[in-house]
Specification:
alpha/beta; five-stranded parallel beta sheet
Length: 224
Amino acid sequence: MTIRVIIVDDQAMVRAGFAALLSAQADIDVVGEAPDGRQGIEVSRRTHPDVVLMDVRMPEMDGLAAARALLEPPVGVVHRPRVLMLTTFDVDDYVYEALRAGASGFLLKDAPPADLISAVRVVAAGEALLAPSVTRRLIADFAQQRPAPRKDRSLRLKGLTPRETEVLELIARGLSNQEIAESLILAEQTVKTHIGRVLAKLGLRDRAQAVIFAYESGLVAPGG
């Protein structure tokens, strides 16, 4: 099935370059683009993309506000795309807030072309783009600036089994499914099952929100 993508970035050359690269892939179709967040929302509502590539800093409406609008749509709007944030900075508080709002991850604008293509496919498949070490550092850096663990988050942890809690902690430390399986001596499919249960019990959308939850609940301490 073809992945429908829109590109929201205030630089025309960036939009054109990304569009050319992605359109060349047999399984990706670029269905629209926009120069700012406000127009990005309009294009998304009209074209119903699977993935929105969203620049962080733009005029009129920045990527964070636009991502929130797409991921928390008003009553009557059913479509919710996956949002992949684009940034020129490896650590950015806007991106952290976007992850908290439900974005599926972020990618540096100067990443290799193959990484961009892979990122779109990963996010479209429902996974979170949290593998790069820079993402682990971003989340840790900004989680460290957050207030004390939120009590509501801590209480929700009690609904997890000891094994599910272990899996959540390892997700928050940036481990892949394969690495978690090796660490806990489990089959990778079993790890996927545990992750699915963790997300369901905590009411989380994906891996990105699981990481944020683990920090805000106090399960994982930044730098710990």
